[in-house]
Design a protein that fits this description.
- The longest helix has 15 residues.
- A hairpin with a 2-residue loop joins strand 1 and strand 2.
- The chain is built from twelve helices and nine strands.
- It has two domains: 62 residues; 209 residues, Vaccinia Virus protein VP39 (Rossmann fold, 3-Layer(aba) Sandwich), CATH 3.40.50.
- Helix 1 runs parallel beside helix 4 and helix 6 runs parallel beside helix 7.
- Strands 5-4-3-6-7-9-8 form a seven-stranded mixed β-sheet, with helices on both faces.
- It is elongated.
- The chain is α/β, with parallel strands linked by helices.
- The site of glutamine has 8 residues, from loops.
- The site of glutamine (GLN) has 8 residues, from loops.
Length: 286
């Protein structure tokens, strides 16, 4: 089969998929090694049977609602590539707003101690470690399915991130950050994109999202369970004037601001994602 013939074949398989041209391009590039330029210049180039089969199989799964990112096995976040697959949440552009706000608030010109809770693929921890290379970055993840992706993404991106496997709901985990009876490691920023979907939202998931791990999505009945526990438990670790900053669901700003206030945080702020929704909330422990 030629490049052009495969392209036509994928068009027909993907016809119901919303971003079909983009998805086709990704499948051909990543599964057949045909770049966008080659597609235009060598439409009659013959493809191996293995390449054609891989692309056709990928397109069929995509047409059945399976996430493109899992088919490709990788996805880009903040200009870097992250390995993904079933068992780990796919990095989303929304989360880039959290990273932008964190970097803007911490500043690039001094070292920081940063702790990323519920790290998943590690997209936040890795990006912060690369963008703020003087800083010490720690990442905590519980899921045995997600943890290998985290470790691999740290390695493949050459990021310096110290990893800890454990449950952020368990206060005993803080002991890993203790350096003496009175003192913890220097942490001046706790950042997290915890699971935050509500019961109702879990029932109305977009088909693609149903393939992602529930443990990375579901934040308890009202979606706020992790914010309550992290704000209350992990603030213990923050240095004076430390920053706690969360990704939130666009409807959760008032609730998360209140949780932060109730836990003694001040100078509470929010920030928007690229689509204009309120996607970030945080505060300082003065
Ligand atoms: N942003 C994700 C979604 O809407 C949810 C991720 C999360 O719960 N942290 O599917």
């Amino acid at each position: 089969m030629t490049v052009n013939e495969l392209s036509a074949r994928l068009d027909s398989i993907l016809r119901e998929v919303p971003d079909k041209d983009f998805d086709k391009m990704c499948l051909m590039e990543d599964l057949c090694g045909v770049t966008r330029e080659q597609m235009a210049i060598y439409p009659d180039k013959k493809l191996s049977e293995a390449a054609v089969n891989a692309a056709v199989k990928g397109a069929r799964r995509r047409a059945a609602g399976y996430p493109l990112q899992y088919i490709l096995g990788k996805w880009e976040f903040y200009g870097r590539s992250f390995k993904v697959g079933e068992g780990v949440l796919i990095p989303r552009p929304d989360t880039e707003a959290l990273v932008d706000e964190t970097i803007a608030r911490l500043g690039r010109n001094k070292p920081h101690g940063i702790l990323d809770l519920c790290s998943g693929s590690g997209c936040i921890a890795v990006t912060l470690a690369k963008e703020l290379p003087e800083s010490s970055v720690y990442a905590v993840e519980l899921s045995p399915e997600a943890f290998p992706y985290l470790a691999e993404n740290v390695r493949a991106n050459g990021a310096e991130v110290k990893l800890l496997k454990g449950d952020v709901m368990n206060g005993a985990l803080l002991e890993n950050f203790r350096i003496s009876e009175e003192e913890y490691l220097d942490i001046d920023c706790i950042v997290s994109n915890p699971p935050y979907l509500t019961d109702r939202e879990m029932e109305e998931l977009q088909q693609e999202v149903t393939f992602e791990p529930e443990t990375a999505l579901y934040g308890g009945t009202d979606g706020l369970k992790f914010y309550r526990v992290i704000a209350c438990l992990w603030k213990e670790l923050l240095k004076k004037d430390g920053l706690m900053i969360f990704e939130i669901g666009t409807e959760q700003a008032e609730d998360v601001k209140k949780i932060l206030t109730d836990n003694g945080f001040t100078d509470i702020f929010t920030a928007n994602d690229a689509t204009g929704g309120i996607r970030v909330a945080g505060g300082y422990l003065r």
